[in-house]
Amino acid sequence: MLGFGLSIEPALWTLVFTMVRVGAAFIAAPVFSAVSVPVTVRITLAGAIGILAMNSNAIIAPEQVFAFETFLSIADEALVGLALGFILQIAFAAPLLASEVIGTSMGIGFAAAINPQSGTSTPALGNFLSILLTLLFLAVDGHLVLVELVVRSYEVLPPGAAWLSVAALRNIAFFGGYAFLAGFLLALPVGFLLLCLNLIVGMLSRSSPSLNLFAVGLPASLLAGVIALFVAMPAMGDYMLVIIREALEAARTLVLG
């Protein structure tokens, strides 16, 4: 009996309870939370990984479904899963911030397109960098590392004792500053060159006010930005790998300890 005269197979109820943490991680984590991923696929993956977690750890679900302690346990599980996915989502915001810095200096900040991850309108350069970061994330098996972290979380934070401490929640919130740091460092090579070009154009405007700088400065900024992106792309790709590694390590240390 699980409350109100209802009965359910214990193994099925344990699987549903296990899927709460896994599903919450998929809702918040990049790639899995993309709009292009159907809900049925997410539920199927959550069920498959839930079975894996049940076979790897001794998970004991609450005895009654309709009980206050059960609702607290479900909120508990959702909090752990959201924390794991949210940390990775913070790191994936770095390319969008870098695109804002670069696109504004190049004069293409108004060019926007639909982001396949969130389904919202974002700068076109941000879409390109986000897709590149997603491909690198998949290339280094970041999605498999995320699944491993979710399964391992049942060892460190078992159901019933999974409340994150106040210090852990504070550190996760403070990790949001890493998105700004990573975004500015990602935009540094191209942004510095465009800053120097804007300084030169500013000095030209002071020396010859009659010169039409809109006809000279904007095409020069666009051309210099494209060339700088082409030259700096290998270094930006290497730093994106650093962002992925830092995000996975932060998810491991901030949540799992």
Automatic annotation (TrEMBL):
Transmembrane segments: 12-32, 39-60, 80-113, 125-151, 171-201, 213-233
Pfam families: Bac_export_1
InterPro entries on file: FliR (IPR006303), T3SS_IM_R (IPR002010)
Keywords annotated in UniProt: Bacterial flagellum, Cell membrane, Cell projection, Cilium, Flagellum, Membrane, Transmembrane, Transmembrane helix
Membrane topology listed for this record: Multi-pass membrane protein
Domain of life, source organism: Bacteria
Residue runs in coiled coils: none
Location in the cell: Cell membrane; Bacterial flagellum basal body
Listed PANTHER family: FLAGELLAR BIOSYNTHETIC PROTEIN FLIR (PTHR30065)
Task of the protein: Role in flagellar biosynthesis.
Family: Belongs to the FliR/MopE/SpaR family.
Protein's UniProt name: Flagellar biosynthetic protein FliR
Organism for this UniProt entry: Sphingomonas qomolangmaensis
Lineage of the organism: Bacteria, Pseudomonadati, Pseudomonadota, Alphaproteobacteria, Sphingomonadales
